[in-house]
Structure to design on (674 residues):
């Protein structure tokens, strides 16, 4: 915190009164970080970048968008055709939304694999799940704004879910709609909330980072840094590594924006919303498909809704379901197998969510849904007790310095704490 | 294990990118799609201006009998290679409603380049009344509003044939092998030689269908050429950025090992 570390007198003067430079220095420069982070640790900064891209392009879009059922679709087309580079801004917003979810899903699976949710990082994990929930709500409402067929019918289907709640369900749906069907009041409030929620996300992201910096990043080995020999300063090592990740991310995003801008969307959303005509298949955006599959796997509406929300809620209590003291899957051979099974299960759920709810797809949805919950509620608690884990290395620098051959000889089981 | 998990991730990302388009393609079931070779396909795709002009002529002389193209204005026709005077002349062939004038009356006047291309009908009800109750969709976005847009539109226009004996075609419906469900309310629009091209291009059914498909793709995505042009530059620039940042990272990390 010493202000002397800044040579510029203006910076020193300001920092003495308002220690923003010390704070930045502590956050992004001097911050000691485990030296063994692999490229899976790039996705946090990429998620942050995605949020910034979404907010900046979103603000520009909002300058040209009209939130009215008679003009929304047309105003989006005017953005695409008549606003200077409006097509670019909108295609970035559309595709970066999908990329945001890709990045966040990888980030979540990273956390699952390396046990990043375990003590003392439970709150860090929970804040992450809160961000994920807020993202889903924001993305859902954003998809409604162009007021195409999928916007309208997606909004109708999803808001109707709340009618499953006993006694007050219908009233809640009327309250959400601001009327008796998805209509202009619904579009207006969705626009308002879609503009608000990214800033809530930004707020929770700040908390997420504060919680992260309390104990620092987890790492692929999952044992704590024991001292300066195990860590390196964030800058320049991880700033440059993150920059490489950003470059790859931007390259892929540019590929999608410029060459396949509509590949992740649905063609029906280029048809203006028509309350009198239901599309043949109502499908949500791809990033909701696993949850949509869980929703439809249950024959009972209320049961489906509860199970769908439980699929996310179960992540909140994950730190207490998996009681194994070993964080990283590298030292948990059985857990590792189940991790990949869960991964395949989630991909399968996504696939099934896009299929019509009939025949073999219903059966498969039920099996994969059951497996999803079994993984968290039965397998993880059992594994915590019965799994024989591999010996942990003594410190982070040990395997980094002497590679693998060394640590197989160390037959000790150090607790992860 | 490490490499394996990376591979899984890469395939996950690729799978996610490809999945929706596959899903959409799978929705069509038993329809016949002809795969056209379009000049606008691929990263260096461009619009064939002669085909666009012919396609616009087909739109005007055939499609515009029933279909509007509301998001196009006459000024947009500059993209087809027409100059300002030509656009003015094309616009002047149409009448649009303007007003109210000083007496509060609406009046008709020749269209100007800034006007939208007028719809053949005043409203959807009139459109339905003139088409057996079916609503001819607006064509501005049709090439993006259908799965595999250009291939679908082309196949649809050449897809009219006699119904197989097992299919009963109700009055006012027609059999088309590209249309989902095969029974379509639109009568066959193109028979060949429906228009006369000034540039001598073939006026076969396939030729005309191809031209109008080009035109409709442009109408749906008029910024495609500039998008792909910027895209090539952006990908080139970012590729260099990727390579440079990779070596910068290696250089910075070199002193750790």
């Amino acid at each position: 915190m010493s202000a002397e570390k800044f040579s510029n007198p203006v910076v020193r003067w300001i920092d003495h009164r308002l220690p923003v430079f010390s704070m930045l220095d502590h956050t992004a420069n001097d911050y000691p970080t485990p030296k063994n982070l692999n490229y899976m640790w790039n996705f946090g900064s990429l998620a942050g970048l995605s949020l910034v891209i979404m907010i900046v392009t979103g603000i520009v879009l909002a300058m040209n968008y009209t939130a009215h059922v008679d003009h929304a679709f047309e105003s989006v087309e005017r953005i695409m055709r008549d606003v200077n580079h409006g097509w670019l801004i909108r295609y970035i917003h559309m595709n970066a939304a999908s990329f945001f979810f890709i990045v966040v899903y990888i980030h979540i699976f990273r956390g699952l694999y390396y046990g990043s949710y375990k003590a003392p990082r439970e709150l860090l994990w929970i804040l992450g799940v809160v961000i994920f929930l807020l993202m889903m709500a924001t993305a859902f409402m954003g998809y409604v704004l162009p007021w195409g067929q999928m916007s309208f019918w997606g909004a109708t289907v999803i808001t109707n879910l709340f009618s499953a709640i006993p006694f007050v369900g219908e009233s809640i749906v009327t309250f959400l709609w601001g009327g008796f069907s998805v209509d202009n009041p619904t579009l207006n409030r969705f626009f308002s909330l879609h503009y608000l929620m990214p800033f809530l996300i930004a707020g929770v992201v700040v908390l997420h980072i504060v919680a992260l910096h309390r104990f620092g990043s987890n790492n692929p080995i999952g044992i704590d840094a024991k001292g300066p020999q195990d860590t390196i300063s964030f800058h320049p090592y991880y700033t440059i590594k993150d920059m490489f990740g950003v470059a790859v991310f931007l390259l892929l995003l540019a590929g999608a924006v410029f060459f396949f801008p509509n590949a992740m969307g649905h063609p029906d959303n280029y048809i203006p919303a028509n309350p009198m005509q239901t599309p043949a298949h109502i499908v949500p955006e791809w990033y909701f498909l696993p949850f949509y599959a869980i929703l439809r796997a249950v024959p009972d509406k209320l049961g489906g809704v509860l199970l769908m929300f439980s699929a996310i809620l179960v992540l909140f209590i994950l730190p207490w379901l998996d009681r194994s003291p070993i964080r990283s899957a590298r030292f948990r051979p059985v857990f590792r197998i189940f991790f990949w099974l869960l991964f395949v299960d989630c991909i399968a759920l996504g696939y099934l969510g896009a299929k019509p709810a009939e025949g073999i797809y219903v059966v498969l949805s039920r099996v994969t849904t059951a497996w999803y919950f079994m993984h968290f509620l039965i397998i993880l608690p059992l594994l915590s007790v019965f799994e024989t884990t591999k010996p942990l290395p003594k410190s982070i620098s040990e395997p980094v310095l002497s590679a693998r051959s060394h640590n197989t000889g160390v037959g000790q089981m150090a607790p992860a704490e | 294990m490490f490499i394996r998990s990376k591979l899984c991730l890469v395939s996950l990302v690729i799978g996610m990118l490809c999945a929706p388009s596959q899903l959409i393609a799978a929705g069509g079931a038993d329809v016949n799609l002809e795969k056209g070779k379009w000049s606008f396909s691929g990263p260096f795709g461009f619009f064939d201006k002669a085909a666009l002009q012919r396609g616009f002529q087909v739109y005007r002389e055939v499609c515009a009998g029933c279909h509007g193209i509301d998001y196009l204005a006459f000024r947009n026709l500059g993209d087809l290679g027409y100059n300002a005077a030509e656009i003015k002349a094309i616009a002047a062939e149409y009448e649009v409603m303007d007003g109210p004038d000083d007496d509060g009356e609406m009046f008709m006047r020749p269209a100007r380049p800034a006007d939208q291309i007028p719809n053949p009908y005043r409203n959807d009800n009139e459109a339905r009344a003139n088409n057996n109750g079916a609503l001819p969709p607006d064509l501005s976005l049709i090439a993006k509003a259908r799965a595999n847009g250009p291939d679908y539109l082309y196949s649809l226009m050449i897809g009219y044939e006699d119904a197989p004996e097992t299919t009963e075609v109700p009055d006012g419906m027609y059999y088309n092998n590209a249309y989902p469900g095969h029974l379509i309310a639109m009568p066959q629009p193109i028979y060949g030689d429906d228009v006369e091209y000034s540039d001598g291009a073939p006026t076969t059914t396939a030729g005309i269908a191809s031209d109008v498909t080009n035109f409709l793709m442009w109408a749906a995505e008029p910024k495609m050429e500039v998008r792909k042009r910027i895209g090539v530059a952006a990908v080139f620039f970012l590729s260099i950025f990727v390579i440079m940042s990779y070596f910068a990272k290696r250089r910075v990390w070199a002193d750790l090992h």
